[in-house]
Amino acid sequence: MKVHASTVNRTDTATLRAHPFFARAMTGLIRPKMSILGMDFSGEIDLLGDDVSAFDVGDRVFGISPDTFGAHAEYLCIPAGGAIAHIPGSLPYHEAVVGEGAWYANGTTQFLSKGKRCLIYGASGAIGTAAVQLAKARGAQVVAVVGTRHIDLPVALGADRVVNYETEDFRALGEKFDLVFDAVGKTSFFECRHLLAENGIFSATDLGPGWSNIFLGMFYGAMGSRRVRIPFPENAPGFILQLADLMSKGKFQGVFDRRYPLDKTADAFRYVEKGQKTGIVVLDVC
Q1: Range of the domain at 186
Q2: What are the angstrom distances between the C-alpha of 190 and each of 16, 73, 123, 168, 203?
C-alpha cells in the first residue's frame, strides 16, 4: 500500500519513550525494536499478494497496524485479513486516519447499550472524541468533561451535556453512571467511584496513581467483576469494518488538530508529547 497519511499519537510516543518503563520488555531494552512507528494509515493499494480478492489495485483504504506499526513510511505491507477497510465515499486521505483512538475507545464503550449513562473525562483528545461518538452510536447518554477552549466540541459530536472542569467539579455532580471513562489518564478510581452506579465500570487509559488501575483491575477481575478496567482493545479487523460502516452512515468523524509533513515527524512527536492536542495529529506521508 502506498501510504498517503498516518498519525502521531500517544501510542507512538509511549513506544518511542518506553512508557511505562516496563514496556521495554516488549518494545526494546535500549532502543525501540520497531524502527518505523505509526499505527494509523490511509492510502492506496499498490500491489496485491496471491489469492487476494477483497481488494483491487488502486483501492482507497484505511486502518491500523497494531502489531508491527510501520505507517510512518511511504509504503506499508498489510495482511488482506488485517485491520483494513475501504475509505467511505470521497473522504480525503488525511481525514481517514481515525482508527487508533477509536479502537482504544471501543475497548471501553463496547460495554454500553441503549439508555446507559456514561461520563467521559477528557473528551477532546483522539480517544475522548471517539468515545463520545461510539457511545452515542450505541444509544448511551453522554456527559463530556472538557476545559473551556473545548466546551463546544463534545456538543458537536453528540454529547448530551458538557461539564467545564475549569469552572465546575465533575466529581460533585451527584449523579450515577454506568461508565466513567478517563480518556486522558488524569483522574483515578478513588476520585470517581462515588459516581458509579451498581455494576458501573471505571476505565482509564493510564495506570493511575501508584499503578492503582492495574492492581484494582486485577483485584476486581479475580472477583469476577469489571469494576476497574484499562481498555485493552480486541479484534482490530472487525472493529475497523464496524468503524467504516459508522463513517459511511455519518455517525463517526475524525477531529483533527494539525498536520505535519513526513520530514517533520520529530516535530509532530514533540507536539504530541506536550499532552495538549485536540483530537488527531496527522502525518502527511505522500
Answers
A1: 101-229
A2: 30, 42, 20, 19, 12
